[in-house]
Amino acid sequence: MPKLKVIVARKLDQLTMPLAIRLPSGERLGSSEARVTLVFADAAALVPLATGRLERLAEAIVKDRVRIEGSLRDLMSAVAEMVSDGGRPVQQGPWARAFTRVRSFLRHSRSKDVGHIQSHYDISDDFFALWLDPKRIYSCGYFREPSMSLAEAQEAKLGLICRKLDLRAGESFLDVGAGWGGLMLHAARHYGVNVTGITLSRNQFDHVKALIAAEGLSDRVDILLCDYRDLDPEQPFDKLASVGMFEHVGRANMRPYFQCLYRLVRPGGLVLNHGITATGLDNAMVAGGLGDFLEKYIFPGGELIHVSHAIRVLSQAGLEMVDTENLRPHYAKTLWSWSDALEANLTEAGRVLARSMGPARAAEMLRAYELYLAGCALAFEQGWMALYQILLVRPDHEIVTPEMPGAQSVYPFRRNYIYDARSHHAEKSEGSSAS
């Protein structure tokens, strides 16, 4: 124990963000000016702090063996300095990579994926409503202006996706992993498309069904409770989006996933894949053990791959990448917005979770979500994870356009249609509908 205290005290002295420790005996380590104090109920919980195994420290916090006094933002500033690998991707050797591929294959099947999705998204709609925006959009916002609110940034993200896909009235549009329906309804209202959404979450399915009926959109909007692999439409869709979904697919299923997207969109049609990626080229773990923590407490079955691997397998599936944008800083800002909202509603969040799972489990779940949101905000700030929107086409050699010979798709091969609202045919209708 004395040696452990010396190691911890030395680590605390090296931090530029002052952090203090209070031991079970009442002894205090660290700066007297610290804005954050970790209160240890047992000395054994000091071990992960001393060794840099921060995922185990996080688990001790979830289990209430360690309590946080102070703000999560300040704590994460200190955590960024304590990560043992300095945030550098931990590259895996050939045997470790082989094990990762086998493990990925074994933990992803239709039945397992249903369980993974429902264990996260179906815990309580009321819980998510406390910290998401009013439309419950559970993916990275787009802060076109830094001063935007979360709700404005999410609205801007929906518009950005629809413009990238160049949605046009009367087209068929598929939303893979539709969440609580934000993109589906936005596309139907402002772009006049016929929308189909799919989800594995029973809660989300029921919620979106009710929204469609309430808005009188049943004639051109539908939500299905099904796996993307089981969807078999009479004819392929004109446009397709997959937002916040491919993180759940698994490395082993990545090529079949993109092959499925290829099958679901018509020749010449557009696909937008919006998802979190790793920063390590060889499927490296997220810094500080964050990936292990998320796997255990938040996203069972979740796996990240590097964007280069995603582009490789989508190319093997026959899709062509025509535009790629990294929104990593936008996700850091989005996650801090979620974290701040949850912190402002902790008491009510605890009550809501307790109704569905009992008080003891609810308390653990709430602490896990606090760490998940703040930890992921830190990870995106530090570049330990990234968020890419990849725009794809399914090439069609029969498409001939005098303006752009050899286009093989409806994509104009110019970005101005995405970012210059005046050049986009649907933006005027979107603006007038929203005003």
Automatic annotation (TrEMBL):
Keywords: Lipid metabolism, Methyltransferase, S-adenosyl-L-methionine, Transferase
GO molecular function: methyltransferase activity
Organism: Paracoccus saliphilus
Gene Ontology annotations of biological process type: lipid biosynthetic process; methylation
Domain of life: Bacteria
Keyword Transport on entry: no
Keyword Transferase: yes
PANTHER family: CYCLOPROPANE-FATTY-ACYL-PHOSPHOLIPID SYNTHASE
Name of the protein in question: Class I SAM-dependent methyltransferase
Active site: C376
CDD domains: AdoMet_MTases (cd02440)
Coiled-coil residues: none
Family: Belongs to the CFA/CMAS family.
